[in-house]
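Subject: Sanity check before I submit

Could someone independently write out the structure tokens for this chain? I want to compare against mine line by line before I put it in a report. The sequence has 71 residues.
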Amino acid sequence: MAVAIKELLDLNVSERIDLALKLWESIPDKSENIIISPQDQKELDKRYQEHLNNPEAGRSWVEIKTGSKSN
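---
Independent answer below. Compare away.
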């Protein structure tokens, strides 16, 4: 069943949230099916190490959305 994106965007907020949850839950919980390139893995490892070294350096999602930085 093919559905146009426009039709999905015409759903009300509650219906879109329900759809998003159903889509998310339809993804199998098997990380071995996820293939990460060596370059992406290296970048993820680098970012994780940076976080461990300085966990306060980042910004929260709220700060990113509002364009602010709390200090």
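---
OP: Matches mine. For the report I'm noting this point. Residues 38-53 form the longest helix (16 residues).
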